[in-house]
Design brief:
Two copies of one chain form a homodimer.
Chain A (H helix, E strand, L loop, with lengths): L14 H11 L3 H13 L2 H10 L7 E7 L5 H14 L4 E6 L4 H4 L3 H11 L4 E5 L8 H16 L3 E6 L4 H8 L3 E6 L3 H10 L7 E4 L7 H13 L10 E3 L8 H18 L1 H26 L2 H15 L5 H9 L3
Parallel strand pairs in A: 1-4, 1-5, 2-3, 2-4, 5-6, 6-7
Helix pairs in contact in A: 1-2, 2-3, 2-7, 4-6, 4-11, 7-8, 7-12, 13-14
């Protein structure tokens, strides 16, 4: 790459970054990968690229997938990606799961299916395992989604393991959230426990060729009927991810939900809520970063010693520490 | 009570509060209860009382009890309290568990045992279910412990359900932490899962008259052997809480751990860490309170709209929001 273009088209970016932006917007996957790495790690260059790219985002549809480990989320994600590709839409996949086949290798069947996607230039797959990013995993994921969106992906699939609150929040921040279930009692209980039903717009019963699928479908419908007034009636779709069965129905269910969001005006409300949530978590992280500087830590050590020695009470010490800001 | 004592002994407290402090330090349980209510709810008077009382704290021994729901923690807590009382030590009990028999009523057997404690003036029981306190449940619990400590309790037992990270942290913040297990496989798995073994100083196998107790003891010992270099070898104590069996051994195990903490100098390190943790969580909560004022919320609304409309990126918006502080 050449360098030094003081008169770059984007005044806010320096020469190299403006060039990188041009490459990215031109469809260069390596430029995209580099920017995503910066964004994930909290690098200042990532911040600058994001500021420049963000106005170009907001066009992609976002779909979150969550569910228990073993529910087959990666398989469903793959099949959905293929379904959107078959319509000519480009796809970004963000997998947030340290044990995801995208990062850790996969069983043979999965690997074969995934290789298809990897070799498709219309698909870009990014695995996000880092929790070190500023503002937490949720804010980092949204930044990655913004960049893929600005890059031009039509649909962005965000796959998270539905174990922690963070992961559930991430999937719930997408326009449409699919909860992937499987026909067995353990999952049924887990579904109830996590209160995850409230964020699900579409319910998929994966592995629905297994015994117990009917019971799972009934259980989910019964659960949904407990909360009828959400302005959208989440469909329950039976699929067999490994054979691609029911995937088109699932894609259509996502489409219907998106249309409902758009026509009801709830799409904008959701986008507003998402923006608010990201600003809040970034601001909180920013404050923590400013408190935990080297001098802030030193002051905290001194104050902790004073509190431990009963020379100051914890509330007064907290106030004194904040005075550092 | 009489009022208006401008020349109260404690310059930092106003007349009424100084009087209340004097009553509390004189052993008045109603004064104690009132101060604890203020402390829990984040009332400014609680803050002032705490500032005055805190220098008198630091003498009580603190023992945390955690474990799965159904492990019999409340029973063990009761029995430990009686054991300390039998030695002539006074006891404070802080139960953090919305389903605790202290708040919710109990099965008959429990009620009988607990009534004994309730009628003992040497025992003060406080149930803490509120999560609304500034700095979260952990900071509120520590404030309650400080007040009971200043009030003069010799031993403070802190019972938490070992389900959430908060609760585990609270039990772990005590000088000695007892993990209460029962002989069944489910608990065994849960023990592993939560990584709770690392905070346990003493392991109790409750209901050890049930089948599977030997296996549970072996499993726990095997788990402990995986982490041998912690400077203390956590004993595994078999008890039958409902019959008081093994409780004296458990009390002695707590004593041994405390002696080890003291002689090794780790007691001070732990106190320092606890102080540091409380200062940090109070400071964080304080910042959040300052951000989420009415005008702060209004500004956040405006910034969210700008981000949703792609007029500003989330990082710049977060920066702008913080500029309000």
């Amino acid at each position: 790459m050449t360098t030094d273009t003081a008169d770059a088209p984007h005044a806010s970016l320096s020469g190299r970054l403006a060039e990188l932006e041009a490459h990215l917007l031109g469809g260069d996957r390596r430029a995209l990968a580099r920017v995503l790495s910066w964004v994930e790690s909290g690098d200042q260059r990532g911040r600058e690229m994001l500021r420049a790219l963000y106005p170009r985002s907001g066009r992609a549809r976002t779909i979150g997938l969550t569910g228990s480990p073993g529910a087959g989320k990666s398989t469903v994600t793959n099949e959905l990606a293929k379904s959107f590709r078959a319509r000519g839409q480009t796809v970004g996949i963000v997998a947030i799961d340290p044990s995801s086949p995208y990062t850790m290798g996969a069983i043979l069947g999965d690997r074969v299916r995934m290789t298809e996607l990897y070799s498709d230039q219309g698909v870009f797959i990014r695995s996000l395992a880092s929790r070190g990013a500023l503002g937490g995993l949720s804010a980092a994921t949204q930044d990655v989604v913004h960049v893929l969106d600005a890059y031009g992906k039509d649909v962005i699939l965000i796959e998270t393991v539905g174990a922690g609150q963070d992961e559930v929040d991430i999937a719930g921040a997408a326009q449409t959230t699919i909860l992937v279930n499987t026909p067995n009692m353990g999952d049924e209980v887990q579904t109830l426990k996590a209160g995850i039903m409230e964020i699900a717009d579409v319910l998929a019963v994966n592995k629905s060729d297994l015994p117990g699928a009917d019971r799972m479908v009934s259980a989910l419908k019964a659960l949904l009927s407990l909360n009828p007034d959400r302005g959208w009636d989440p469909p329950v779709v039976r699929i067999v991810g490994t054979r691609g069965e029911g995937i088109d129905t699932l894609t259509e269910a996502c489409d219907s939900h998106f249309e409902e969001l758009r026509s009801s005006g709830r799409l904008e409300a959701a986008e507003l809520a998402r923006a608010r949530q990201q600003i809040t978590s970034l601001a909180r992280a920013n404050v923590l970063n400013r408190l935990h500087t080297e001098s802030g830590e030193q002051r905290l050590d001194d104050l902790s010693a004073a509190v431990a020695g009963r020379l100051a009470d914890p509330h007064s010490a907290a106030k004194a520490w904040l005075a550092e800001l």
